[in-house]
């Protein structure tokens, strides 16, 4: 009977765990929907902003602004966007592997999210700064991050600024990605900004590019002044979009992980219930045999 009591306790414990994971799954699903809407809402704006910058860049050239100029010999600065909480599957693990594979060991690190901040700090990486971002992501909290990265690049200490984040593809797929933020290149301006196929040279169509080349601008006050306004806005929005894409990936991964945990718990409960019923039936059969044997002995 002790075995039966142990199995009952285990069934009760697994049921409690299943209730918790189910609740976490529902919460993650609700947050995922908000994060998806937030990520999708900015994609059209990012695409139009890119087209404007393509037009401007073709008319003023790369030397018109320091954020467009390629540098040699400097270090790399990387913004790593991870999660503050766990229970989201292999999301942070895969992103950490991507950072170790694609980022040079001497690169300086700026982090958003506690998980990879702790991991990279223990690995001996040079940590410059850490930022906290609320959920859902407000645009105002992307500005100081973009400003910090831009200032570090303009001061001349870095030849490249990159961002590592979890690229949201769909509910079941979140792809760790490292993309160049600064200097702003023609390729990055030509990429689709929905982040599907990021880094795969998805160009603006030839018709759009031809239209960009055919447009001739008259700048007032000057091309550099226009770029002084638009390029920081572009960088701010790029950082913001990567933050919301990463947050959508986090909630999607957590919902899938919690659904898997709930399904496994239900399967385990069925197995324990079957085992419990077998032991209970065996115990009842043994008692019936004892009673039958005693009755025969009394005859």
Overview of this structure, please?
With 299 residues, the chain is of the alpha/beta class. The protein folds into 2 domains: 2-22 and 258-298, ATP synthase, gamma subunit, helix hairpin domain (Helix Hairpins), CATH 1.10.287; 31-253, ATP synthase, F1 complex, gamma subunit (Pyruvate Kinase, Chain: A, domain 1, 3-Layer(aba) Sandwich). Helices cover 61% and strands 14% of the residues. The protein contains 8 helices and 5 strands, in the order ααβαβαβαββααα. It has a 5-stranded mixed β-sheet with strand order 3-2-1-4-5, with helices on both faces. The longest helix is centred in the C-terminal third of the chain and has 76 residues, at 223-298. The chain is elongated, with a radius of gyration of 28 Å. F-type ATPases have 2 components, CF(1) - the catalytic core - and CF(0) - the membrane proton channel. CF(1) has five subunits: alpha(3), beta(3), gamma(1), delta(1), epsilon(1). CF(0) has three main subunits: a, b and c. This is ATP synthase gamma chain. Produces ATP from ADP in the presence of a proton gradient across the membrane. The gamma chain is believed to be important in regulating ATPase activity and the flow of protons through the CF(0) complex. Keywords: ATP synthesis, Cell membrane, CF(1), Hydrogen ion transport, Ion transport, Membrane, Transport.
